[in-house]
Amino acid sequence: MGSLSLHSEQTCLLLLLCLLLYLNPSLAYSLRNCVTEYSEKPLADVVLNCANHELLTIPDDIPKDVSSLKLFSNLIKKVNKEDFGNLSKLRILDLSFNQISHLTQLTANIFQGLSNLTKLDLSNNNIQFIHSKGFQFLTSLQTVFLESNNIQQITDIQPILQLPQIQKLDIKRNHFTSFETKDLLFNGSSCLKVLDVSHNNLKRFSITTPTFPHLESIDLSGCRQTGGMTWDIPDRTLLKNITNLTFTNTLIPFKEIRKVLQSLDSLMDLKLNYMESLINKGLLATVCKIPTLKKLELYWNNVPNMSSKLVTCSQLSELDLSDTQMVQLSNGSIRSMRRLKSLTLENKFLTKVPDDIKNLYSLEILDLSENYISELHCEDFMNTTRLTELYLSINSLTKLDRCVFEKLTLLKILDLSHNILRTFGGAFKIGPPMLEFLDLTKNSLTLFEKGDFQGLGSLKYMDVSNNILRVKRSAFDGLNNLETLSASILYDGYYNFRGLQHLENLTIYIDLQVSFKHSDANYSKAFYHLKSLKVFTVICNSYHSGFPFDISVETFETMRHLETFAADNVYISAPDPGSFQYNMHLKNLTIRKTDLLDLDPELFRPIPKLQVLDFSNCKLKSLDFLAQANLSALRYLKLTDNEITVINETVFQSLPALTYLELDNNPFTCDCSNAEFIQWVKSNNQTQVVNAYQFTCSFPAAEQGKKLMDFDVQSCWTDVSFLCFISSTCLVLLTLVSSVIYHFLRWQLAYGFYLFLAFLYDSRKTKKGAPHQYHAFVSYNVHDEAWVYREMLPVLEGEQGWRLCLHHRDFQPGKPIMENITDAIYGSRKTICVISRRYLQSEWCSREIQMASFRLFDEQKDVLILLFLEDIPAQQLSPYYRMRKLVKRRTYLSWPQAGQHTGVFWQKVQRALETGDAPIDTNLLNGPAGR
Length: 931
Hints:
Layout: H1 2-23, E1 35-36, E2 47-49, E3 68-70, E4 92-94, E5 119-121, E6 143-145, H2 158-161, E7 168-170, E8 178-180, E9 194-196, E10 204-206, E11 217-219, E12 230-232, E13 244-246, H3 254-263, E14 269-271, H4 276-280, H5 283-287, E15 295-297, E16 318-320, E17 342-344, E18 365-367, E19 389-391, E20 413-415, E21 437-439, E22 447-448, E23 461-471, E24 484-490, E25 505-511, E26 535-540, E27 564-568, E28 588-592, E29 612-614, H6 624-628, E30 636-638, E31 660-662, E32 668-669, H7 675-683, E33 688-690, E34 697-699, H8 714-717, H9 720-768, E35 774-779, H10 785-799, E36 804-805, H11 807-810, H12 817-826, E37 828-835, H13 837-841, H14 843-859, E38 864-868, H15 881-889, E39 893-894, H16 895-898, H17 902-914
Parallel strand pairs: 2-3, 3-4, 4-5, 5-6, 6-7, 7-9, 8-10, 9-11, 10-12, 11-13, 13-14, 14-15, 15-16, 16-17, 17-18, 18-19, 19-20, 20-21, 21-23, 22-23, 23-24, 24-25, 25-26, 26-27, 27-28, 28-29, 29-30, 30-31, 31-33, 32-34, 35-36, 35-37, 37-38, 38-39
Antiparallel strand pairs: 1-2
Helix pairs in contact: 9-14, 12-14
Domain TIR: 772-913
Signal peptide: 1-28
Family: Belongs to the Toll-like receptor family.
């Protein structure tokens, strides 16, 4: 029953996969220049990647169901109307980093059919002009990128501004010298919300018409026109919805920028980066008077006493002072910011936590990354009890005090990565109690002891990789809700995952370059409590120079819910066939950098639900193991960087659900041994072979460097040796058959041939309707010629008056003998055969009687008279099949039986000649005449 249930389950799964493939058939394409990106969700949007292929034109084999198309970093110069005509489901199109010159050459209907397109990227091309109707069919378009082109006039972007759904337009790094709405040729308004005109060296930015009533964000960064940019917006209501404004490294007079800031009533987010000259002139005094301002970015401004200039900015909720080269934050400079919730101080110069932070009671996010802070004190975060995120990465912390995070009862994210921490000092034994994310990567931690994380009962994610750790028993006690753990562990037996009963994702980085004298033979028991584990990854960071990290069958025994297992540079040989006998829910299996030559297909028997298999860099030379494995649900197969030279197409017949196949970097053989695989790649409509048209030949030497898919497989179907074998066989059979036919059926064949000639002659004569020239044609042997002249002619021609045709007298000289015979027989009403033993032995006489007998049976008339000059017994007629058959079916005249009564004999001949063309009387064909 269990086996039946498992079979039913596999069948249902296979049917489901087939249904999903039917619903999303675009997953099954082997394209020449593109790759359909794999998704674990069969019904996910189809993303096609054609980037970095040096394409000159848009590929013509793009699946019609594609929703996102990546064509960036190619050499495309021109786009035709037909290129996107069938892509009605396309929503995202990326044509950046090509050589498209200008849209006027692409015709007005260039994007016809893309009515569902929402995002279009044409940045980094050579576009100069845009046709007035170039975007008319893009009724759903929301975002357009035209960065780094050659557009100069605002009128060129008018077709975009008029789109009904447009939200964001990026035209930075073009050649605009002014942006003035009065130059636009339409009186309506645009739906645009985000406008980026940065790095255009604008001399004038002017909005004097109600063109942008919904505009929320403007970026004027990098505008460095000589003399500075002029801001001309006389009516402040025209930009009443502006909430975000960016001036980064912008050359604008102090009076102009003050006018700008004073004219905006709704500004909430202001970026003044690389603007130190204006800040030194007192710009922040104006900024701090903007009542609606909530977020202020001031990074990369080297201004002395920067923080002291912010004293009056009490309304801010977010402040970024990164890279301002502040050695310290002036006391009292930000103390007044009672509403501040986010503070970023990535300065590279701070050596301690600024004192003012102690008074920021409302602070929720604090970023002190990339500084030189070496110590944390208990009072540093004493009053910032509302902190939920604290970033201290890339500092010089060596230790933590027990009380340092004691008051951070709401902290959820803590980043201590890239420090030189050696000990926690008990900091995590008492909290933070609400912490969910802890990053300790790349420190100098060496040992986890019991209770180190006792206070982190809410922790869900912890990363302690890039350390050199020994984990003692019960070190992870207290992490009752931990779901994801990444750890670098020395393999010496000192680690234990007791207490992690809710852990679902475990990644272990192993370093084997240690002594194994303390190795614990029961190391597999360390994983015994991971009963909830779904994803298990083991990565070895060092070379297998000694005892390997062996993952035994017992390691997986309690992982009954395991769905993904990955081992990178771990095994030195194929895993034990029974490794996954307890993991029937396994869906993803990855084993890389391993020698799998001795792989046993039984490894796959317990995991019938496997969908993803990655055996990259495993020294595989053959795929035969796939045909023996039970992988009916497999959808993704990756076998890159192996030693596969020949692939048998029949292997993939055992993988009915396979839709994605990667085989890059294998030494393929370009000869007829791969012909079926090449044909399969090109013709199958289910499996996409990624980058198949880029596979190169490694063997034979003459084909090295050529493309596998360019190999001419037709030559394999016309093998010369095989043709020679077939030809010689046919020749031998033909010789044998001909010999048999000649020996047994030569007379029948000859008869058939002459019958055919007679048929042709009869057809011609019938069409002509010519009268008979003779009363009878006399067929006789030359040895009987004396009897014909002495006995027959005097009676039949002399006495009875018949006109006879004799071959020596009446045949036309120079005419082919067979044609003379045919003319004589069909030119006479009757044929008289004078039969003797010599007659039967004569070849020409035989042909004459054959032709006459054909006329007899063809016309069904009494046209044949048989005269026997000799008594010939029936047994002597046996070799003469045609004559014996005629004698049995017709009456005949016998000259020896006439005796002295020759008159009666010739009277019977006369009566036979007088019968005319009457039909054959079958009743008379029963015996010899004269008997």
